[in-house]
Each structure stands twice: as structure tokens, then as C-alpha cells.
Amino acid sequence: MKLAEGTVIGLIAGYYDVETAAGIVRTRARGVFRQKKQKPAVGDHVEIQIDDKGMSYLVKILPRVNRIGRPAVANVSHVLLVISAIEPDFSLELLDRFLTFFSWQKVRVTIYLSKADLIDDKKFEQISDLLSYYQKIGYPVFTNYHDVQKQIPGMIDKDQIWTLAGQSGAGKSTLLNHLKKDANQATGAISTSLNRGKHTTRKVELFKLGKGFLADTPGFSSIDLTPIKINELCNYFIEFKRASKNCKFRGCQHLKEPKCEVKKLLEEGKIMPSRYDDYLAMRMEITEGRMPEYLK
User: Fold this and answer.
1) Is 237 found in the same domain as 173?
2) 281: buried, middle or exposed (CB in 10 Å: 19+, 13-18, 0-12)?
3) Does the annotation list 115 as a binding residue?
4) Would you indicate the residue range of the signal peptide (predicted)?
5) Which domain holds residue 285?
């Protein structure tokens, strides 16, 4: 009997595909997880046990960095956020919701503007000007698919897990189909097949991209911000957090406090007004404890 460590890259009808140094192993989880009310997720770093007959069992979930989305992906290090230029229309409000949520989850974000080829030059210039603000405060921004295809694989470091996010219809599936040309290699390399019957469709799948993985998941299409503590919300607007070091009061909420650096930068045009407006709207949402109906 031997132990091996690996990463869960797929879940099929109760079986887990685990990528190990020796290849991909299909395994089942021990009953102890049900007793503890735990469930391994795609992206989990795990320990598997392989007996003398080649049978394998998932026996331990190693410590997680995070577990986000429905269905869940564990240990997400970066999100490629797909925001459409049209159909559905470009929305700064949705962009800010996603950025705030992932900042709360301590996950870095790269922004990709999809469907840019479907709008005219004037509209493209307007959106690009808006996105330049986000680039300035620290978010990488891509407005061209070819740049994404060329550069994203090189940005994924060893063992990192990236995943796609964005509103329904933004073009996540189209982008994924272009990026995951080698995805079939993962399913074709299974070394231990315990389940030979029909499999249900994979809900979440990781495939190799760059030096790490990209998650194929239907999750992250809508964002619920109500679990965020209201006095911590301002910390998830990265330029607010940066500026708050110069606020007079520690824990400044950037509302009516005197000598607030965020309000000062807002008045000087150095913070985008829509960002501050969205911050106020999110505070209201958290106070009321429910998402606006049109965002559900």
C-alpha cells in the first residue's frame, strides 16, 4: 500500500480524477468524509491511498486556500473575468461587483473585454477609456482575444488554478473553447478506471494550461455580496484601501468622516465616480441583507 499526493482535476458520478506525479488516477473518497460532512472539490490538493491490487481511495484533503463558487472550485489563485462589450451590454456595476467579490476572496483578477469586435470604434474607445482606470489601479486588462490567447498561458505559474468568471452570455464558453485545445489530454490519460458505466457530464473540470490549470466551470455567473461585513467592504476596493492610509480616522468608511482621503481623491477626479457610487450601493445591499432582484 502506498500514498500519493495530487490535485483533483475532475469529478464524475462520485469518482474523483486526481493528477499525481505518476499520472491521473480515478479514485473514490473514503466514507470518513461523509461522517465529517466534508466533500472534496475540484482544485483540492489531496492524498490518495493505492493498495496492492491497484485500487485507490481519496483519504485526505490537504489545507485549502479557498473554496468558492457553485459548483465549488478550491485553491483558486486567479480569475480571468470576462466582461462583454455588448449582448449583454458592458456594465461597470457588474464589473465592480465581481472585482469586490474576488477581492474579498483574496483572489487576483485579470479582466478580458469580450465581443469587442461587435461594437463600433467609438463605443470601443469609450469602454477602453473606462477600463484604463482599472488598469491604472492594478488590474491587468485585455481588450483583444488574440492577446489573451497569446499571453494568458504564460501568466499561469506552476500549480496555479485559474478560473473563468463573468455574466451569462459574456462569451466564457467561446473563450474556453479557444484556450483549451489540449483539454482532451486530461481525460485520455486516466490510468485507473474504476467506473466503466455511463458518466454524467462533468460539472467542473481542470485542464492543463501554461504551468498550471484553468477551471472549466459554470459557476461565478452571479455574485452575492451580502455575507461581506459592512465595515470591511471598503477594503475590497483596492484604490480605497490604498488611499485609506492617509485618512484621518483609522477604520474610515469614506462617508461623512472629516479629512477622508478617498473623498478627497474623488473630488479631485482621481477616483472614478461610478466606483464610489457602486460602493454606496453595495453598502445598502449588505445592510438590507439581499441582492437586488435584477442581479439574481
Assistant:
1) no
2) middle
3) yes
4) none
5) 230-295
Residue 192 lies in a domain: no
What gap in Å lies between CA 95 and CA 282, rounded to an integer? 13
Q: Is residue 31 part of a domain?
A: yes
Tens-place pLDDT, residues 53-70: 777 889 899 999 998 887
**Predicted structure pTM score:** 0.86
Residue range 259-264: mean pLDDT, rounded: 97
Distance CA 295, CA 288 (A): 15
Residue 168 is labelled as binding a ligand:
yes
Chain mean pLDDT for the chain: 86
147 is in an annotated binding site: no
272 located within any domain: yes
For residue 62, the 8-state DSSP code is P
Looking up residue 35, the CATH number of its domain turns out to be 2.40.50.140
Give the whole-angstrom CA distance, residue 128 versus residue 111.
12
Residue 49 included in any domain:
yes
Q: Is 167 annotated as a binding residue?
A: yes
- Provide the domain count of the chain: 3
Which residue has better confidence, 233 or 56?
Answer: 233
Residues 210 and 94 in one domain: yes
DSSP 71: T
Question: How does pLDDT run across 160-212, given as a tens digit for each residue?
Answer: 999 988 887 888 878 887 887 654 433 333 344 333 333 333 467 888 888 99
Instruction: Give which of 33, 25, 32 is closest to 50, Cα–Cα.
Output: 25
How many other CB atoms are there within 10 angstroms of residue 244's CB atom? Answer: 20
- Is 234 annotated to bind a ligand? Reply is no
